[in-house]
Amino acid sequence: MTIFSATGISASYGRTRILHDVDLPELHDDEVLGLLGPNASGKSTLMRCLTGEKTHHGRIVLDGSDRDEMDVSAWHRRVATMPQTPPNPSVLMPTELMWSTARALDLDFSDRELADRIEDIFNRLGLDEFALSPLHVLSGGKRQLVGLALALLRDPDVLLLDEPTSALDLHWRMVVLDLVRERLTERGGVVIAALHDLDLAARYCDRIVLLEAGQIVASGTPGEVLTPDNLARVYHVETSVSRDEQGQPVVQVIRPIRSGKQVAR
Ligand SMILES: Nc1ncnc2c1ncn2[C@@H]1O[C@H](COP(=O)(O)OP(=O)(O)OP(=O)(O)O)[C@@H](O)[C@H]1O
Q1: FRET label pair with 173: which of 69, 159, 180, 219, CA 20 to 30 Å apart?
Q2: Domains of the chain by range and CATH?
Q3: For the CA of 42, the nearest atom of ligand 1
Q4: Is the pLDDT of residue 263 over 50?
Q5: What is the pTM of this model?
Q6: ipTM of model over 0.90
């Protein structure tokens, strides 16, 4: 059973405060939290605080243990990150990256188990035919999928995804998020994903936190957060929100709003 919490998170770059005392909802096994907000609202900075990459104030607790008191390698075996930027287009092949990452993390798998795992992840992400191609010949989308494959390799309890589908087409966006969901159902754990796509967030997230200028504007279920008022306030767009067959919100963006006035079409 995984329980993850992050409370009172504040962070700055130099003298500029970016995150102001952010409290995420406590996450339990099988839950996906979506971080939404416009450009520069602090999503990636918050993700970097959660991974430990960025110094910050506040508490991050995994199953009752404060991250600051946990062994760093134990943390990295349980918490995996898929950064916003895909792996560099180097001469390395996806297979080599997977094996070297597994070795660096000292994962508790035999070579046979690891080979099977890598094959399974590559198959599920459509990377099997690219396993032995150097990264520099892969498209940006394929390299983004390699980034996800690396994060899934350790079978993490906490999966942190920073805009995991930004370089992917519609098909692969859904494949990736279906796979992440399936994984949670199979083995538990929690996921936090920074997203721009409101409909994907509504479809895949159990909870959503909406950020603006480093502060939480709304937090709750997709239906509670994705309202025309919240979206107008944060994204400056006029929207119409209906419900799909599962009762989840479907957002239709109508037009941008500037200076409090609607822009004529
Ligand atoms: N390394 C850095 N040094 C200084 N300022 C930074 C740095 N990284 C981010 N910032 C600033 O912090 C603020 C929040 O940026 P952040 O990347 O966290 O936002 P975001 O919500 O992830 O944006 P986007 O949706 O555009 O990716 C921005 O004003 C950005 O300019």
Answers
A1: 219
A2: 3-221 (3.40.50.300)
A3: 18
A4: no
A5: 0.93
A6: yes
